[in-house]
Amino acid sequence: MKSNVSSTQIFYHLLDLSEIEQQCYIDELKRLQPDLYRKIQPLLSANTMDNGNLTELFGYHAQQAVTDDVCFSQLLIDKYKIQDEIGRGGMGIVYAAERCDDTFEQHLAIKFIQPSLTQVLGKAFLFQEAQLLARLNHPYVAKVFDGGEHQGYVYIVMEKVEGQTLRQVIGSKSLRLRQKLQLFIKICQAISHAHQNQILHADIKPENVLIDDTFAPKVLDFNITQKQQLSPSDTTAILAFSKYFASPEQKNGTYLTNQSDIFSLGKLLLFMIGDQHTHSLLKSDLHCVIHKATQHQPDKRYASVIEFMTDIEHILAKRPISLKSHLPFYVARKLIQRRPVSLALSASLVLSAVLFSVALVQKNHQLEQEKTIAENMMFEVTSLLFHSKGDVNKFMSVQTMLELTRRRILSNPDLPQHIKQKMLLAMMTPVPAKRQVKQDCQPNCKQHSLEKVTQ
């Protein structure tokens, strides 16, 4: 037991323990740290003054711990045969049971609520809350079938879920982050269904989520003792919750809303992703989502579980979350992450089209330029032929006229340099002399000609 723990922390720690564990903890505290025990006594006394039955409810007296030794195993209560005990806590005791009225064969779980809790809240309230739970019909919520009373214990008949708690699954299996988020989305779907039926869970924690063989969650143990809204004169508020997962308003005993469950879901998600992901996701979408869900002020959290769950789905689908959807570069980056192959192909096509268009424009410009040059050259040649008919150029040699034309063409500033070079090369190349063909007539040819003349 740590000596630097405050009295308030010890008080909240007691709320998470069963009644027997609470009494053992207090006895050990009194024996080992009497000073700290004296500090916590005012908290216990204050709650006893506010509600005379609250001390009995959480089992601070040794006498109450003795009465908890009650056992219902192997009893036949109504139409249910009670079997072995499954679990025990501050709220009550849970047993496995089966229906034995020769109509249906069902394997069930029956939760017996502490009589002291019944005295505080009343049977009518407990049955009313149990009736609300029976309205829930969701594959990820443990179904409530029936209820009743036996020897001062109000009991609730529920679906029996075979599986491990979420804490056991997270601790024993090496799950990928994607698997954890997919599991968390299913838990959100269950809580959202409860909210749509005006029911809060008010005690979301890993122990209250069972995972079956198909890796599907079952949310159970709705806190039927936690009222959603308290009047200022209400002194029967019961602070039954887990300290780490409870919202600030629940710890303070104020009224609860859907945002209280959203806070607990944010804490549950932080527990599920574990420390190995926390540091790498400090600036990621997941961290932003958890930070939004666990704001101290309820009005700063998500407005509904659906909004919270939608952002988690967007993270899995690599889509923009609602908290960053106004950032254009972020949205573009998400689009690239979501469709890298198709965007790469599209970018390649666009780049090819741009390059092809640029090449066409350049080629067209070159053709237009060459057309202009050809027109200028034709004009110069035409001018040369026209002026050669005059008296001035009568005695000018052809070589001189070509030289004048060459100079006029090359002095044209619009003529590209590579064209000028080609023209100079062509003009400097000497024209090969034409060969003269000599006819060498044979003697017989001369004779043949003479005969023709004679004839």
From TrEMBL:
Task: Please give the Gene Ontology molecular function terms for this protein.
Answer: ATP binding; protein serine/threonine kinase activity
User: Which PROSITE patterns does this chain map to?
Assistant: PROTEIN_KINASE_ATP, PROTEIN_KINASE_DOM, PROTEIN_KINASE_ST
Domain of life from the UniProt record: Bacteria
Show the InterPro entries listed in the entry: Kinase-like_dom_sf, Prot_kinase_dom, Protein_kinase_ATP_BS, Ser/Thr_kinase_AS
Q: Could you say which residues bind ATP here?
A: K111
Q: Which UniProt keywords apply?
A: ATP-binding, Kinase, Nucleotide-binding, Serine/threonine-protein kinase, Transferase
Q: Can you give the residue ranges of the Protein kinase domain?
A: 80-355
- The protein's name is Serine/threonine protein kinase
* Source organism of this protein record: Photobacterium chitinilyticum
